[in-house]
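Researcher: Please generate the 3D structure of the following complex. Treat every line as part of one assembly.
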Amino acid sequence: MTYSSQREQQDFFARTATVVGHLEGVRQIANGISLAAANAKAVAARAGNQAAGFVPITNFIDEMGGETRHLVGRVNRDAQRMVREVLAEKRLGDSLERMRRGIERLDARSPYLDEIARQLTAEHAAARESTTRHLTNLCELLQTISDHARAARMMSTRSRVEATIAGDYQESLESVADTVDHAAQHIRDVVMKCQSLLREIN
Amino acid sequence: MLRTEIFSGRHHWHVFGRDPDKLSHIIDTNQYLVRDQGVSFLLDPGGIETFSAMLPAVASCCDISEIKYLFASHQDPDIISSLGLWDKAVPHAKLYAPWLWEGFLKHFGCHNIEYVGIPDEGMTLDLPSVKLHFVPAHYLHSSGNFHVYDPVARVLMSGDIGAALEPAGAPMFVDDFGAHVPRMELFHRRWMPSNRAKNDWIARVRQLDIDIMAPQHGRLFRGDDVKRFLDWFEALEVGVTAQHAAAQAPAAAA
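Model: Done. Output below.
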């Protein structure tokens, strides 16, 4: 990761904050998926044997909605922690720079201050490494959410097939499948936006 | 950063200021160092922008690792926003500062240095050859504020009291008190909020034997100029803005 200039850091903060904001929206969509799954379960229960093939699908979608919510919570926490870490890293970098400028102006070398500068350099490098690691983890988590959403879209396709044999309940079950499909597509779109934002700083 | 020794005995006082490389948009400040037999005490170490100049200036008169104590008269950024940097440079040191500001000053970064809160009534600090006194100066101008008195060197480090707003490169000592007054007047009228606090402080300080009064901005006072300053300050009405003064002027004229 490179964000040496102040402008780049400001961009980084803005991007990360935007990602956190987008993900809050994803959490709400995931709640909607769980609600749709609960609705589908109720419809399937009423439909009995006519919608027997629908039950495992709704169970899967329900689990996926819960898992997505969990992942989004984790990504949000990680993103917020990363912002804090970047701030700490910036402070360390600033301290190091000011310390170096002071040391350059010394009349004679100071082994004591050289050691302080060496420790600060190591601390700063470790902080930078940690931030990079967190950014990589964040991108991986986003990919997992995207994969979940893709699986949900596949399930909604299967749901439509199952709905065709549900007789009177076909319309209700198709509506559930549409809700899940739209939600999953929305999640993928948002996650792609987030990935694109983070890719620029990774 | 210029360094001037203002007292030399068994221990030494140095003042740092008039930095020729200082950024033009920040106020000039005086930083002080007491060096006493291998123990150094840094008073109002300055703002974050001053640190890179202060570090070599201090290193020119003591080993940085000798700095065992720091002092912040109050919480202003020009006094102590360098704390986060000194926290890296002298992690073993203790910071003496008003107890009132502990939670606030730590926003500047204080992970290693130990914060010693000075109680409202003040306290003393033992250096190898002198006991320094933290003298209360609350509401002058900060609500939690202390000065440092050295009874051996007869130096009173007086924080913002006695401060003057001057162009760069001003001399280190006042040489003509009358000419110096206009440089101090606005600052004291506006920054010092309480006549009562001012009079309490003057009464306290008049009991001290002072050769040098050393403010955090502008020139230092020595000899009779210390008494002249106290008399002038006593007569000055403080806590007055330009608007107050303008509003009072017609009433006074009527």
